[in-house]
Structure formats: structure tokens, C-alpha cells
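Chapter review: from sequence to fold.
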Amino acid sequence: MSETAKLILNGKEFELPVVTGTENEKAIDITKLLETTGYMTLDSGFKNTGSTKSAITFLDGDNGILWYRGYPIEQLSEYATFLEVAYLLIHGELPSKKELDYFSGSISHHTLVHEDMKRFYEAYPTGAHPMGVLSSMIASMSTFYPESQIPMRPFKDIEMTMHRLLAKMPTLAAQAHKVNSGHPIVYPRNSYTYTQNFLHMMFALPTNDYEVDPVVDDALNKLLILHADHEQNCSTSTVRIVGSSQSNLYSSIAAGIAALWGPLHGGANQAVIEMLEKIKQDGGDVSKWVDKAKDKTDSFRLMGFGHRVYKNFDPRAKIIKKACDDVLNKLGIHDPVLDIAKQLEEFALQDEYFIERKLYPNVDFYSGIIYRAIGIPTEMFTVMFALGRLPGWIAQWKEMIEQGEPIGRPRQIYVGPNQRDYVPMAQRV
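The C-alpha cell string follows.
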């Protein structure tokens, strides 16, 4: 017999079906609750609400587990390339050599952006945040590819839109950085891998080539994989709900980028570096700021420690810590800000206050350090997050379309004034 939950309202009993996931996650199905009872549920922030059934990512915060399509993140980050993981997320299975060659080749073929799009950069003010620029540029792509606006197209055509997005987003991101820096745009090279190409477009100049360091390339590959998907977070849910209106993929992804931009979501790695800079400007006394973090009466909080979902440890942080150490050792960087970061890390891993409260360094902490070490400007950190999250967003949008999910339309509990009559201006006090 199927498991059910019983709800008693005004002395009347209702049975609600229980849905069980493949990893024994349980949910009470309230799809017909309003229809059968006249009642809604109230769940601010949707913290207890499953918005969909998804086969893409499994996350167990209590045990520090993250799987993509059933594959542990530890294995994927160790052995796979970012494009392999992108294919896995979008298509559900790891690609054969033939499938990966086609996938990678198609993406390499579409890395160039329309020359007219370069004019858009000229309209942005100096210092424009690259996330705002990137979101606008991605949304604009729907006007260059108007066929993307047709909701019901053959999958082959939709697949091409996906490939264009994956191909052109690194180009647009790097161009936004170059224009903001006053440097000439660097065109992509089809002979490079996905990560090599991005590093080339970010750091090469017409006067000299940029030689990609294998250690840096490996670290970036790992970072993008670790950020590729993370269940129904704010930006992913945004992509799905925008897409549920049959909005085109470019617009849906642009909306996801806008959601990720928020400091409570994707801006955490940027906040880490800004915090470290603040400690440096104050004299660099790490113990003073650790004491401030411990003081309940002090508003200061350490950025990059602990996680809302992972209660014991962030599996992504354990992976990227080694990559972080490798990058710092290989590049031999002497940066007071990074020295402060290492001191904070030691505090978090050894101090009982941090250990008891599970305030371990998370993926944002280490990713911020890596990006700074390899020369990525602080304002580009969230862009890097978006670059990694892109295949997850695409996969979630695709799954939502294939499952025929209805347009997203949350309800509300109205708490405003009762009905009242219009008062003419002359009678208002």
C-alpha cells in the first residue's frame, strides 16, 4: 500500500499521497490540496517545498553528498572535463568519444559572437558591473537568433541554441572584462579547450600570447565542474519559472544570471575577497577579526565559512582546497590578502568555536582565493560562477520543457486592507 499523510481540517480528514525519490527523499504531494480542501500552504522562501521532480542533481546536506546524474562530484572533478560534465547534465549520460567530439566540436565552432554585439559594450558606462552586462548580452542573443523564440521547435534546433549558449558565454564574459579594462578584445581559438580558451580571451594581448598554465587550467576546470549545478537554488528556480512561460532559453538564462548576481547567492566569493581586503586595510590582525566574528553583539560575520545546505562539510570545498594549494604553490604568489586567507583557514580548521558550529571554509572561500591568485578581477568572480552554472541551468530548463511542467504561478495569503470605496480628492483629509 502506498504511503499517505493525513490532514485534519475542521474535523474532516484528508489523505495526501507521499512521493518517494530514488534516494528515499520523501515529500507530501499537495498538488490537489487547494482543490480538495480550499486551503493553501504558506512556505516563505520555499524552504520546505519541492517545486519539481528532477533527475539531474542529488544533494544531501547532512552527509555532504553531491551527485550529478548519480555520479559523485568527487569522481567527476577528478577525472572529467567540464564539457563532459555539461553533456552529462544536459543529456543524462556520460558521452561516448563520438558524442563528446561532436559536442565539443559544435561548441568550438560557435564561439564567435556577432560583430554587431561589440557595439553594445560601447553604450555601457565605464565600470559597469560585468554581471549586468552579461545578463543583457545573453538576453540580446534572442534577437540575433529569432528562431529561438519559437516555443515548439525540433530538438535539433533547440540543441543548437544550447551549443551557442555554451560556446558564446565565455566569449561575452571575457569581452566584458576586456572592454571594462580598456584592452582590445581577444578572439577565441578553436584549437583550445573550453577552459584554455576562456583564459586566453581573458589574459592574452595583441602584443603577446598568454601561455595557459596547466595547474591553473586544471583548477579552473574543477571550479566550473563544482559549480555546474546545485539543485533548486534561487537562480536555477528562476530559470525554470521563467522558462515555464515558454520564454526562450536565452531570456531564461539571462534571468538566472540576474538572480545569481545577488550578494546572498552568487556574490559570496566576491564578498570573501572584499572581507580579506578589509582585514588587510585594518592592519591584518586576523585574531582580532576572528574575535569580532565570535562576538554576538558585533554585526561582523566571516564570509566563506559554513553553508546553508551542507551541515557538516561542503564536499566541493574539500576538493577545491587541494587545487587552491596547488595554484598558490605553483604560482609562488606573495599577496598579503592571500596570506590573511591562509591564516583564517587555519583558525577555522583548528579553533573549537568554528569546529563546534561547523563553520568550515566553503567552496566560495577557496574559489575566491584561486580567482584572485590567477588574476581574475573581483568584480568577475560572480561571472565565473555563472560560467560554471550554465550547463546546469540549461539542463534544468530542458528537463522542465520535457516534463511539460505548467507555468509557475505561486499563490499568496493576502494580508492587505478589506474592500473599501474610492474617495474623491476633495474629500480626502
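Two observations follow directly from the output. Strands lie at 4-9, 12-20, 26-28, 57-60, 65-68, 71-72. The two ends are 65 Å apart (CA to CA).
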